[in-house]
Amino acid sequence: MTELEKGPTGRRRGRGARERILSAGQQLFREQGINRTGMDQLCAAAQVSKRTAYQHFTGKDELVAEYLRRFDPSVLSGVFDRTDLTPRERLLAAFDIPSATPLCPYIAAAVELHDPQHPASQYARDYKKAVAARLADTAREAGAADPEQLGEQLALLIDGAAARTRVLDADAFPTAAAIAAVLIDNAIPAAAGDDH
User: Fold this and answer.
1) CA dist., res. 8 & res. 26, Å (int)
2) 18-51 burial by CB neighbour count: b if 16+ within 10 A, else e?
3) Is the pTM above the cut of 0.85?
4) Were both Cys, which of 20, 45, 58, 120 would link to 64 (CB 3.0–4.6 Å)?
5) Which residues are paired to 6 by β-bridges?
6) What is the widest separation between alpha-carbon atoms in the chain?
7) Cβ of 137: how many Cβ atoms within 10 Å?
8) β partners of residue 12
9) What is the C-alpha to C-alpha distance for residues 14 and 22, in angstroms, rounded to an integer?
10) Of 79, 78, 56, whose CA–CA distance to 138 is shortest?
11) Which pLDDT tens digit goes with each residue over 38-75?
């Protein structure tokens, strides 16, 4: 193998390069933000040449979109797919988020990018709509009178708690969960809500 066939650290290019680039992007975008992460830094962290990076992604915009697309395709399956909880308990479990959890990557990307036409902005919109839809589906299962409204209210509370936790460096999720419990109890008729 000639020197031209080796990557920046002597590794063969292409073997796992795409995954290393995505992994480095995930780490750097979370730690310092999308706008503060340059391609040179990203390539160094992924141990790939710029040429290799551009063989896998046409540019940083495509990399950011792929990062978000792959982040959580199941839309909180750890909450919504639990069979050991009642629907009401699953709605409340959506607020059981450790305070050390970084800001939602979809919110962070939307705030940083400022471009509603950016592919990552579209992924962020789609994901946020999917979260509200999963909440609405679970609210419907719990017997809520207006499940779409409750789903939107709970989605707004989750996003607000995530942002407030980050800005104040203090856990806002317990307060959001208490508000959610009141909303849920008010939205679910007494007969349907007897499982709590």
Assistant:
1) 21
2) bebbbebbeebbeeeebeebeeeebbebbbbeee
3) no
4) 120
5) 12
6) 74
7) 15
8) 6
9) 13
10) 79
11) 999 999 999 999 999 999 999 998 999 888 887 665 66
